[in-house]
Structure prediction request, 598 residues.
Amino acid sequence: MSSSANLAVELRTRKRSADAAFGWVARGSAAFVLLVLAAIALTMTARSAPVLSAMGLDFFTSTQWSPPEKVYGALPFVFGTLFTASIAIAFAVPVSIGVALFITQVAPPRVRRYMIYAIDLLAAVPSVVFGLWGVLVLSRDFGLGRSFLTAGIILAVMITPIITSLSREVMETTPQADKEAAIALGATRWEMIKATVLPHSTGGLVGAVMLGLGRALGETIAAALVIGSALGQITTNPLAAGNSMPAVIANEWGEAGTLHKSALIALAMTLFVITILVNLIANAIVARAQRRMRGA
Amino acid sequence: MATTAVTAAAPLTTSSTPDLRSRPNWRATKSALMTGVMILCVAAIAIPLVAVLGTVVSRGIGEVLRGFPDFFTSDIPVVSRRVGPGMGPAIVGTVLATGGAALLAVPLGILGAVYLNEYGGRSAFARTVRFMTAVMAGVPSIVMGLFIYLVWTMRMGYSAFGGSLALACLMLPVVITSSEQMLKLVPQTLREASYALGASKSRTIATVVLPAALPGIVSGCLLAIARAAGETAPLMFAVGAATRLNPNLIFEANTALSLQIFENANLAFEGAQGRAWGAALTLVALAFSLTLVARLIVKRFK
Prediction:
């Protein structure tokens, strides 16, 4: 009698400790994210120290990048990254918003479903495939060459599906009553969009564009294939060959010596900081827009 | 007064029935014009999609089918000038690296999401983890590749597993975020019913919450795997450049479809470019089928 009571108590405590153990395993898995990020920050900082102590702040301001002379100035690549990303955004944003408006406000339900499928598929095409098409078709067969513009176009094609689907999700939350009220007052479709859909979605749209920008800044392979790998070019001529931070890392890592590798890691670190800032601002804007929409 | 108004209006109504057809005016024209602009936007996005997929299929299909199934089984020619198959080692490498990454990131990510939604809630630690997950999702893939090179490849050498580690780091935040969203959709009443029957918290999660959220979680994981399978930059510094079949996940240099496309795209040889298109077709087919399966699961269980 007493032994079976003891057994019951023991079983219950064992069950409780298994329960607690599961909780701790889950907590540990969540903590893994912090661990990996800390490891990335620490390793990258440690490995980029040599070039930063050799070059000082010149690393960020010098326009000369010459591994044989041990001179590493990252400015042209920072410029190239921002320039190609701006070209991509300039092409992608109007198109994405137009497509999202068409899907949510114009297309009949059946067409809408197929278009959403098609955009999902476009988002699933690997970036290296766009790069291959860019280098063998767009730049060679169409004669566009390897340049900022070619890279910008390829990046635009890659980020359009992301911006489109985020914009579509935001636009879909426009209250039906607002839209019907606008139509009832005699508004045309475009006036209805201008009066209800666009004001309602502004915050979400800005966030979507910023997330697309984050993707464009970090995209490596497509840019590495079509940007042209020119060293030290700072020019606003979109047809000139240029270079971007991720493209330099991908193209030069193979034959880099110790200090050169350190310079490339410092470049990666710079890219890391820029993209994280852009992404965090984007997330904050999206979160605020979502809160406002729930409140409305 | 009222009668004069009626008589004054009378001739108007009697002379003709009111014209209710909408007359063309500037506002309607503008609305139609803007609809036209939207259709142009749709065309602008459809053209590259059709052009890229059309080229991949038209240039890749011949390569893939020539002497079927040589393309899928033969080793990669060491002399890249040579015309002919194949991509066998790259297909195996992609499957190994992506599969390994899924084995690492999926359980870890789902457990992390379980913590965030079932245990952490709005606690400070959970909010920190959520914030850092968003940060991690923004890390460029090439940075992840360099990181794995520094902590793994430099010590352990090139292998498919190094690629798995890099891809797992990229997948982890995606799996956590999508799984947490799915767990959030599970009704609180299900959990309460399970507790009322005397089930412990871990048992409730394992037998009630996770099964209820499973279709959504699986679909999110498949999308993350599809994205990972196409990644190139994280593999560049971890997998190596083998040309022969290496079915070993842990040891010896390997290769991957994406890496082969990247290398061959830069070569001016007909044979190399042909193999690149073949590899692109294979990779696109792989990514599309994973995406479609994910969509079907969502549709089926909605």
